[in-house]
Amino acid sequence: DMADKAKMTVDPSFRIAEIDKRLYGSFIEHLGRAVYTGIYQPGHPSADEDGFRKDVIDLVRELGVPIVRYPGGNFVSNFFWEDSVGPKENRKARLDLAWRTTDTNQFGIDEFQKWCKKADTDIMMAVNLGTRGTADALNLLEYCNLNTDTTYAKMRRANGHPEPYGIKTWCMGNEMDGPWQVGHKTAAEYGMLAAETAKAMKVMDDSLEFVMCGSSNIKMPTFPEWERVTLEEAYDYVDYVSLHQYYGNPAGDTADYLANTLDMETFLHTVECTIDYVKAKRRSTKQINLSFDEWNVWYHSMDKDNEKMAREPWDQHPALLEDNYNFEDALMVGLILITFLKHADRIRIACLAQLVNVIAPIMTDENGKAWRQTIFYPFYQASKYGRGIALECPLASGKHDTSGHTDVTDIDATAVYNEEKKEVTIFAVNRNMMETVELDCDLRAFGNSLRIGEHTEMAGYGINEVNSSADDRRVAPKPVADPADALSDGSYKTALKPLSWNVINFRIEK
Ligand code: AHR
Q1: If 0-12 CB within 10 Å is exposed, 13-18 middle and 19+ buried, where does residue 209 land?
Q2: Cβ partners under 8 Å of residue 46, min gap 6
Q3: pLDDT (tens digit, 9 = 90+) per residue, 45-74?
Q4: Which of 11, 50, 292, 405 satisfies CB 3.0 to 4.6 Å to 259 for a cystine?
Q5: Can you name the residues that pair with 428 across neighbouring β-strands?
Q6: Which ranges of 131-186 would DSSP assign to H, the alpha helix?
Q7: What's the gap in Å between 294 CA and the centre of ligand 1?
Q8: Is residue 509 flagged as an active site residue?
Q9: pTM of structure
């Protein structure tokens, strides 16, 4: 009976691509409590000599985040970066128009660089193409990356940073297709500006990579024409097109919520095809890839945030976008990560939006500790086990329909082969709400060398169960001690519980 059985083949010869570690990137925006009382809180018991919360740094390192996008987001579109450097006592506050907040500029470019070193991560820097433009982007690049005897390189050295920062990946603004964006542009205007800015920045440093803004989500009325027009202007100068997408379940329809990765598949496929169309039209041999640099679940806090911004603007670091994630959100994040792995040949960068306090896996209590949300765990496991070669895994599963989607597979799954560590890991979600599904995996290509390593599941929770600072392991992966978990002659069978996220790791012993 196909309703409760699924089959998958895992073979190390069938490679999609080597996974770019930046697939496990994240994002810190000057928004809410991401920076102030998030990563930066002088006076907090865990703050170090720079005012960085060590409890937060520990959790960021635990997640294994290789790159962090900064400083926005919508914030960047009216960011005056030079306000944020130099002696702190001279820094002036400025209004942040994106989130109707006052930013004191006590934390800026240099602090972020220092924090990234401590958190063991790289910077993905966004420039302001909203209210500013090419000249300002060049000044910021000179400040960060050059060691010349000119104004901005000198300014960095005078501020106590003799070594250039060597920031390699740069975002050409943020969501420039969005009418909400300060300095929003048409596709033709933005394509030209992105091209000219990237071209000029490359003269200063030709090792840089550029991410051009794609559509802010799949429902934008200008999608996918925006991608075509901007690429026709900028194809020769940029390296990645960005995608952003958030999901939510405001209707409380879990089955349909968990089917949203079908739309994500369509989004990815359409952007890939649009890039390749422009490539063909231009007779280009250059390959442009994807930067999915904002993705997550985001909806729990929205009404409250809109109310706050409308009625009480201009506070310093108010609590905004503080979604408290539940169990089904963790399943959704797991499904998104599986979708990314299947597109590892085109997605070279992805940023979980965001990292701390603002729609984030890591939360902080201002007067207490840092803690892990439910979504922390699937991201942690994918970042830990999802390094190496993404494998093409044929999968047959029963299907169901939901209110907004048809032919939704019960199981979504994929596998990653890590040659160096000699391990292979299966990631699988059962999004059937009722049935346990028996997964039958053909692993014969590995011969008799496989041993079951760590096998965990997140299952059996109520869909609305959440974590808190008092208990951040309430909703978390638990080891499976399953007598039905059998591996023999390259055939592996396991039972995937209804509504479950499963990570099954095998060691390859030779
Ligand atoms: O991540 C929150 C916001 O979502 C970002 O500032 C913006 O780019 C997107 O709309």
Answers
A1: middle
A2: 53, 54, 55, 56, 369, 370
A3: 999 999 999 999 999 999 999 999 999 999
A4: 405
A5: 413, 502
A6: 134-145, 151-158
A7: 7
A8: no
A9: 0.97
